[in-house]
Design goal:
By secondary structure, this protein is mainly β. It has eight helices and 26 strands. The two termini are 18 Å apart.
Length: 493
Amino acid sequence: MSLPDILKVAPQQTIDTMDVHTSILEPLVCNQNNARFQLERRGILDINSCIQVGRIKIPGTGSAADEICNCPIRAGCHAWIKSASLRVGAQTIATTDEYGKYATINRQFKSVEERCRKDGVLKGTVDGMEPSWLANGQLQPMNLEWGNNDNGMPRFEADTSPQLEITADETTTAIFSIKLSELFPMMKGVQLPLYLMAENLVIDITWQNSGLGFSYYSSSQGAGANNFAASCPIATTQVAFLADYLSYNDSKMGDMAAQAMSTEGLSLPYNDIILTTAALPRMTALTGAGAVPQRQTVNRDIGLSSRSVQKIQWADVPNATTEFGGDWSLAHGQYVSRAFCGGSEWNMKINDRLVFNRPVRNEAQQQYYLSQTSGGVDLQVASCEYSFDQTVNSVGTVTLPAFGVDNAGSSVATVNGVNINDPTFTGLCHYQGLDLTNPMSGAGVAVGVKPIILERTIFRASTDFAQSALTTYIWAQVGRMFVLNNGTVSVTE
């Protein structure tokens, strides 16, 4: 049987009366490690239902008043969640691991206006770019309070809006929200009929570590001192789930109930993601002037045998928080994907056959294939944010700063006391991916018994050798089937 229209995330063919019941659910469990919500067995769960969450700062070596704490620039409040799972009874339906990093990838397909004007308020992000006040062809973050100095001229120190700051008080700290459809890819395509389930739907959240570099950035670096907040724990009194339950006329709700009670049951195809991680070791720098980039070949077994795979995305995240000058870690935490000054290339082997006749090396091609994983929506970042193509010389040394620095490398702009210089943004959005869906049927690639292999060659240039090891996070979106029969939920590949 086909999926009922009222469960589809799309405009319906006919106009019908719909009732919306909104509940604010307190978590069954909420501490600094995790939170759990149990939803009511009523109506149809709307995909725009969301989790409300906040953090507070614990002062470090500086005074609480001087420390300005915010979410990571690109990840926002998504950085606060490490993993999330959706289950009915003992049956796990969907799981999203390393959620903050995964969400950061897919936020980069949003328009700059949406990221700044909308997500800036709802998610605490600061990742839209505009021309620098210096009018020198460089860029600076746009949704900030730059203002003017006493002479009426533009100043080059900016602050985030006070309403977006993490404070030491749970009643005044910024509160953000994350939609259910952002947490779980399955909720982008279907809405769940909770009223037909014999057991309650449960959402489990595992919070991200509150340590520096994972959850927020802070300022007040006077005299070289890192006066950061010691930690940013979850504001447990502010955690809640805002649930919208939809219901239609008795005829439509009854027809769907009859389908769920039939021999075939109610089947809902959906998408889930599987995470694979792999180490990317550092290399020893070549000696001598004018050293050419060095090749590093890395082949990774992604697995995914006997699954229908729709798309694959990956990010190269430095293990250390002092990479490439150090300033970027204060603004981004670990929610980046670092490009290599010498470039890189990749290919993929599926069912024992290479996808491409030759590896994909051109940066524009890599960006194109990544954009296909978002339905063909272009990546909404500046070229210098994606790669070092515009900022390296022939031996891979960074020479042309792109963000808020002059050619001598001195800082000309700060945000909350953090220097906005070249390494703060350049080459930190180098996400990659490949869409494997059939454009005619929308089905993914059926993988046989042999695993998918990601084949990569990285060209380590002179600037890259100083960097530590990285971890490659690889998310694969796979197709699954949700089956509801006589109130019992089961999941099949």
